[in-house]
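Hi R.,

Here's the chain you asked about this morning:
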Amino acid sequence: MCPKVICVIMGGGRGSRLSPLTQSRCKPAVPLAGKYRLVDIPISNCLNSKYNRIYLLTQFNTASLHRHIQESYRFDAFGGGFVDILSAEQTERDQNWYQGTADAVRQNLSHFNCRDEDIFIILSGDQLYRMDFRDIVAHHLQLNADVTIASTLVSKERAHELGIMRVGYDYSIKEFVEKPNTPELIDSLIISDELCAELKNMCKLNHCLASMGIYVFRAKTLKDALEQKGTDFGKEIIPTLLGKVRLCSYVFEGYWEDIGTIGSFFNANLMLTDTVPPFNFFDKKNCIYMNPRYIPGSKINSCRMSRTIMAEGCIISNATIDRAVLGLRSIIRDGSKLTNVLMMGEDKYENNADLDDDGKKGIPALGIGKNCVISNTILDKDVRIGNNVFISPEGKPEGYEHNNIYVRDGVLIVARGTVIPDNTVI
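And the predicted structure, written out as tokens:
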């Protein structure tokens, strides 16, 4: 009997590194590229790989994520596919919420209805990449591995940020170090000449193999591993399996970015405005799925725009925009200038009577007012920015926080629902 492949997406973390974008939503629900959510990436990779048994493990600020999943992923009654949300719950057996990635899977083993010979793919909910998971499963089965870790080549200068593996020529993992912190240790983990010869054109000098946080487990191995102590796969479970089970690496060739910080998230979005970005949403063979909304087309009046991605339902008048991602229902008024801006848009339009340029009762209307200048900024959903407003992170210290305005990784963030009056300089 062929093994069943079960995909598990981790969506339960607090997402503190992406704060303030995660103040009212979990990481997988953060908007991406104008019209998607981060969680659409791993789900689409599963579906494009013909794996449609998908579990999403959630815990913090889950309302918008649950709504998005329910509205976006509906399967016919005969295909057997599903995206099933498993929220943290207290039971007679366990009174704790999820304590980490491994603990989240441990608490839900009874829900997966798996056999020992089945295959689990454990995925992160906050990465940008496109992978055919059939390739890593085939690699896993060919090597007769118990656990296979997807890896990507990174320069040794970045090794201290990630979990790094020393891998033999036969793809077996000899050593696993979470965020190595000395030059000597990093040098010892540089990819070997023997494995370079095996990888051929993929190999790069002075590079290491970093874990992508994507794991393939034999179901029995996963069950046995989770009987031991340990709450996190990368920090605890995987290191304890070294030398006890057959632990192998699958080397991924392609774009991959962990977008768990504000800086990486901001850059990953603006990168999409390049003529040929490293991650391409226009790949018709491997599309990224999303909520099929019923929103009118965008309306553009006398604008100058370059390197800009724009979702549906935007209303933009006489604006100058360079290198920006504009989310659903973004509204930008006369004379405003945007440079390096991620605008997440609005959840809904206001009533027609409220769509005048000046808003009502002294409160700016949704969107950006007239003659504003905004640069290097993330505007979360439903912001109200008045006329003649200047916004930039320039001159503000890292960690700046004031009136729902934040600076993280050199990027200024205007938190969701923030109101900025006319003539404000930030």
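Residues 44 and 285 are 11 Å apart (CA to CA).

Let me know if you need anything else.
M.
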